[in-house]
Amino acid sequence: MPRSWTHGREDDLAERFREVRALTDALAAPLSDADATVQSMPDASPAKWHLAHVSWFFETFVLRDHVPGYRPFDPHFAYLFNSYYEAEGPRHARPLRGMLTRPTLAEVCAYRRHVDEALMAAMGALPDEARMLVTLGLHHEQQHQELLLTDIQHLLSLNPLEPALFDAPSALPAPVPETLHWIEGREGLVEIGDDGRSGFAFDCEGPRHRTVLHPHALAHRAVTNGEWAGFIEDGGYRTPALWLDEGWAWVRAHDVEAPLYWKRTERGWTRFALDGRRPVNPAAPVTHISFYEADAYARWAGGRLPTEAEWESAAQNVSPVGGTQLDGAYCPRPRAAEGTPALTQMFGDVWEWTGSAYRPHPGFRPAEGAVGEYNGKFMSGQFVLKGGSCATPRGHVRASYRNFFHPHQRWQFTGLRLAKDL
Amino acid sequence: MPRSWTHGREDDLAERFREVRALTDALAAPLSDADATVQSMPDASPAKWHLAHVSWFFETFVLRDHVPGYRPFDPHFAYLFNSYYEAEGPRHARPLRGMLTRPTLAEVCAYRRHVDEALMAAMGALPDEARMLVTLGLHHEQQHQELLLTDIQHLLSLNPLEPALFDAPSALPAPVPETLHWIEGREGLVEIGDDGRSGFAFDCEGPRHRTVLHPHALAHRAVTNGEWAGFIEDGGYRTPALWLDEGWAWVRAHDVEAPLYWKRTERGWTRFALDGRRPVNPAAPVTHISFYEADAYARWAGGRLPTEAEWESAAQNVSPVGGTQLDGAYCPRPRAAEGTPALTQMFGDVWEWTGSAYRPHPGFRPAEGAVGEYNGKFMSGQFVLKGGSCATPRGHVRASYRNFFHPHQRWQFTGLRLAKDL
Amino acid sequence: MPRSWTHGREDDLAERFREVRALTDALAAPLSDADATVQSMPDASPAKWHLAHVSWFFETFVLRDHVPGYRPFDPHFAYLFNSYYEAEGPRHARPLRGMLTRPTLAEVCAYRRHVDEALMAAMGALPDEARMLVTLGLHHEQQHQELLLTDIQHLLSLNPLEPALFDAPSALPAPVPETLHWIEGREGLVEIGDDGRSGFAFDCEGPRHRTVLHPHALAHRAVTNGEWAGFIEDGGYRTPALWLDEGWAWVRAHDVEAPLYWKRTERGWTRFALDGRRPVNPAAPVTHISFYEADAYARWAGGRLPTEAEWESAAQNVSPVGGTQLDGAYCPRPRAAEGTPALTQMFGDVWEWTGSAYRPHPGFRPAEGAVGEYNGKFMSGQFVLKGGSCATPRGHVRASYRNFFHPHQRWQFTGLRLAKDL
Amino acid sequence: MPRSWTHGREDDLAERFREVRALTDALAAPLSDADATVQSMPDASPAKWHLAHVSWFFETFVLRDHVPGYRPFDPHFAYLFNSYYEAEGPRHARPLRGMLTRPTLAEVCAYRRHVDEALMAAMGALPDEARMLVTLGLHHEQQHQELLLTDIQHLLSLNPLEPALFDAPSALPAPVPETLHWIEGREGLVEIGDDGRSGFAFDCEGPRHRTVLHPHALAHRAVTNGEWAGFIEDGGYRTPALWLDEGWAWVRAHDVEAPLYWKRTERGWTRFALDGRRPVNPAAPVTHISFYEADAYARWAGGRLPTEAEWESAAQNVSPVGGTQLDGAYCPRPRAAEGTPALTQMFGDVWEWTGSAYRPHPGFRPAEGAVGEYNGKFMSGQFVLKGGSCATPRGHVRASYRNFFHPHQRWQFTGLRLAKDL
């Protein structure tokens, strides 16, 4: 990562646009044409596709719709780089994204510059609606920054050479493992959901609404790799009683024995990340686990996953600019030991699985127009994750933020924090 | 159905045992050995398997564990007829249940009598824990009564001859379609979940807990076949904007154009049920629809699905012994027109999809022992349905009852009731 | 088997019709309605389907086409029981044959009687073309007699109870294993293919034609179970160099370690057959092996599979009414030891895989009309097997007979005889 | 194609080595890193993989085994670039070849130079056995030259942009369609198979052996695109009676309506090739058809496919250095009209499907050592093709050459010539 990037300190949209776009370019800089082209699985997309798709978003919803006389870079790109917007017409099938050896990476970069220049030129004269779409597009691009990293990590992991994309961060002293403390949460009526005060929120984060919390406590930190190794040693992956029925079927169908990217060696567990294969750090938060694994671990540990409301209510008083985020490292780091037990690692480090299905908040209304397909139509079959990860751009996440994945997916930086009933 | 069966009027466990078991036998009476053996799909089970499995439940959890000297009918049956209880050891693979041409239907009936006699002989001396397991077993058997009917209906539907298992009920006058009325629901803090006053509840129905309802209203009746035909005519199955993303993928993958069992003929829509293929009754509740279809319909109609809490709160003041239930007919019937608009068809007729994922109530604890696998381990990937259907034994359902299926499944008697925000 | 049945001694078509039909009924006699209905895999068909399909063949190609005024038993049966005749219109999908719980077994038996009576009544007045179709239909029914047995064996094998359909034959003294002798074959120009002298042949057996044999020898008997056990012990299933590429992929994909129906127990290998699970007889021919296994064994043994021409040329001087055939037992038996080494076990016992792909003989022309779909359209992807098995009706097989299956299929009574170059 | 390359005029192995290797480099020259990396389907391999694999062949079987002190370029490459040689140990799974974004194309080219230099340095001192392996390696590399082109064509065809890799050849005058003439073939005993006089042959081409030809004739030229369009117009793809059973299933499963790469436009049929999408030339040989299609066409045309022996016998008197081969164009061209009817287009243009399964010639023995896995283990499930194509390096093909593919495969330059019985 060439330099720190902090969202929100600038209040000028053009400057934010420049910064977000530059970070994307920086993330893609180490990639070869081939690295940027191959699709490792249907869930993932090629880096080149991410680079182009986020540009298509600006080109379509801002330049085409709000800038008179704009000429698209290439009329075919609408077909190639629409992700899932049915209202925008037919599109290239998702599992075939990796077949696009052309346009080349260099051509996609030229496309990016074309869009950048057109948008920067038009920025001053954009109507408010278009400025809101630019803002949405920037948050959208930040989401793809994280996906770009997790997708390329997945691709490189399938190469027997296990190449490293970045140098390893300088070695950190491994902190002494810390006792887990329980932090009691609020009880009774609370409010969650976007309250309109964070400057930006996706449609699915609102509306603000009341809900009831029952007596509970949250762990003061995330579950660590060392604790996870204990779960493995105790036969966690071989004990059906710990698992949801679908989770157990998933474990058996895929012979799951450890988090994704872990391998057992003679010297202990190792993991693969963008800095290559290295020993697992026992003090760092466990990551690359599915909802099923998180749920089974919690049951083994005598707890449960937090609900979204419990997590969000607790996070409302925590600064979202903490933890390891995208300007730090390419994998979660151990937390610095602290004097007084308090909620830590709520933001950054790892996305925390909650026990809440991703369904609409009461009174939810999708955004108007094609961007209304952004969130609402994915509200089945997925679970909510909260808090961001080491690959989330700093400034992108907040308490009301709702990330969501299917329960078997684990190529994101997913982890967990324990909760329990009181 | 040979005779009416009403649960709950007897307070003698032995009498209830006798009645429930007799109803199962009556339901299976029209089946041939082959009808009772074939498995139409992995989701469904052969009737013979249902007949044996519910007996295995009593044999294992009551007779084996609580009746000294009991000798099992056949030691192989524990392997053949365990459904999914990991704690009870290995078992015959679910998709292969239809390969069991032996034991024959007659042998399975003999197995039932063996268990009946042993349990009736032991009933007087059973300890309380065992009596609770007998009660659980009876409710379990009632669930399989409904599955037996829906599974055999699915099997017969795959036969090009479309044989009828039962005579058609006498023709009913088709009521005039009725305007849909909206009934305003409670707002603010309410209590839902089992309160221990209904005599029996499954573990997942509790604990009783507070939740918040936001301003809303429920339709006073279920959506009808006639209304559904309007959805079809309006292109509902061809309009992606109405569908959840996974729902739209499901529609395209399976070329879904209408509810399961519907066929378009020159004279209009027909449906298949246990009384054969007949014209769709426009005034009857629509049934055999997936969650995806219910959700898309609600969006088309300008509403949404009720949450479980909204539905349950409204149902708490409605008698659960209403509507068409198992002692009536083999498909939902139109409701009798009424003078004053009020909530109707809450119980019986069709299971109503809610918008709530099937997840634990706050503070949920599974039952102790092997029967703890009954509900809790299925709490991912499914949605809650409420209210029972025309194939639910009368007396089996209640406001807190939580049925659950995957969003694509529709061979049960599934329908919907609209809700809307106020 | 209730009585011996020898084909060919009667020259009266009506008498042969009566006998073949009666044997089919006898084979199905031990089956329950469920046994006769379930389909164990797409390759197999339910017994009830076999019983009806062979009747449909007579009803369609003889009664419908050649008997004025014939009224079909049930107009739906043409759809249900056509196997693969495109010229006869649409038909029930093969993998769904097991869904037909109706018509019942009793109804199918009534269908058989209806066809029998109509055909016997019409027999005397049938034109020659129709008499030829009756003859074809009888040979067709004999093929289904064998399939009925192998299909029901496969179905019963999937039942954990492993029920026996027939009593075991009386115990035979296990002969001393015999040295394998090599019998030199003809060399140079030979003639193979149907010569029109056997009274009946399928279209694919002709025309008679010349071919060249190169110096070779055939083993005087089939490979035995004892020899096969040696192949297993020597790591045959774990040595890729012995296998065709597709064979090795098949072994790994299905974890193949032994012939179908074999299980290793503490006391040695057992096999399942229609008389239940019993110890493998080391002197009996090995059976239920795929082409891939036969080919790998031959390579391991330093030989190869015979070509069809080598086998057929050698068999031309051997009586086809030998070996264990359908009037004997339900699995291959050891051969009686003999004084002089000579070709034995050519007919009956096990179908012998040849190294020849099932392709048309030079000058092959399919039969005229719908029955032209009988053989020719299957001439890709399959290998020729020769000689009949313990489940082939005596009198049905001859030197020119061409059986054919895909190289991975092994639920038939398939075995092998070694060949080698000289 | 930068320059003409003619095999065989040099008798110096080093010069031939240099020329073959240079042609491969020239073929890959227009490819980007991404073009060379992506795998379009499991049947195809990335260009980069072809480039490396053929080098691995020389490195392993020549340099490692016969050149003392040779140090491999990268010890991981044996794992990455072994194709299917079980004797050479474990290897990267074929369907994952496209995941190898590293090594880059530049690194693979460096690998090629490393091998080239080591082999050229050692060439003078190689023992005869190693020189034979070099020769084998060159023929092996020529096969991969053809695959490299067909695989990249398939990849580019999946890109909605349909990019052209090469300029179109200069427009050719479309010859007047020519009447099809029948050329009578030899009858009776003939010899086919490698006779050792062509300097090189793969093991599977021998041994030379006698076979019998029955009265027949071959078409004097290949079937043309224009004739194929007639088959389409006549409903060829909708008439089950024309198809083998497996072919018909394949047509329906994949909705096949025309050769691969054909699209119907308002102006008529177009095809995609390495020069982009262009109108179909009615006088050029049809290509990119499966065995199933070839077989169905022949039946429709009243003929059949030639047997391998018929084709090879006829080709023995035809010069194999004719037709459009790799130094010409990237798709088959029309033949120049000729005065006297004679066999033409036997070599080059399109591989011609025969009706012969790919099985061993009588007396076949695989080559010794690991290279014995080259041909023999693929002798099931495939059909023989003869004569080479427009993508076959000139000099590589001969009468006894046996190409082989599965009957559904059609991404090679596959076509057909009619035969008929006399």
TrEMBL record, chains A, B, C, D:
<dbReference type="InterPro" id="IPR051043">
    <property type="entry name" value="Sulfatase_Mod_Factor_Kinase"/>
</dbReference>
<dbReference type="InterPro" id="IPR016187">
    <property type="entry name" value="CTDL_fold"/>
</dbReference>
<comment type="pathway">
    <text>Amino-acid biosynthesis; ergothioneine biosynthesis.</text>
</comment>
<keyword id="KW-0560">Oxidoreductase</keyword>
<feature type="domain" description="Sulfatase-modifying factor enzyme-like">
    <location>
        <begin position="343"/>
        <end position="420"/>
    </location>
</feature>
<feature type="domain" description="Sulfatase-modifying factor enzyme-like">
    <location>
        <begin position="186"/>
        <end position="316"/>
    </location>
</feature>
<keyword id="KW-0408">Iron</keyword>
<dbReference type="InterPro" id="IPR034660">
    <property type="entry name" value="DinB/YfiT-like"/>
</dbReference>
<dbReference type="InterPro" id="IPR005532">
    <property type="entry name" value="SUMF_dom"/>
</dbReference>
<feature type="domain" description="DinB-like">
    <location>
        <begin position="17"/>
        <end position="130"/>
    </location>
</feature>
<dbReference type="Pfam" id="PF12867">
    <property type="entry name" value="DinB_2"/>
</dbReference>
<dbReference type="Pfam" id="PF03781">
    <property type="entry name" value="FGE-sulfatase"/>
</dbReference>
<protein>
    <recommendedName>
        <fullName>Ergothioneine biosynthesis protein EgtB</fullName>
    </recommendedName>
</protein>
<dbReference type="InterPro" id="IPR024775">
    <property type="entry name" value="DinB-like"/>
</dbReference>
<dbReference type="GO" id="GO:0052699">
    <property type="term" value="P:ergothioneine biosynthetic process"/>
</dbReference>
<dbReference type="InterPro" id="IPR017806">
    <property type="entry name" value="EgtB"/>
</dbReference>
<dbReference type="InterPro" id="IPR042095">
    <property type="entry name" value="SUMF_sf"/>
</dbReference>
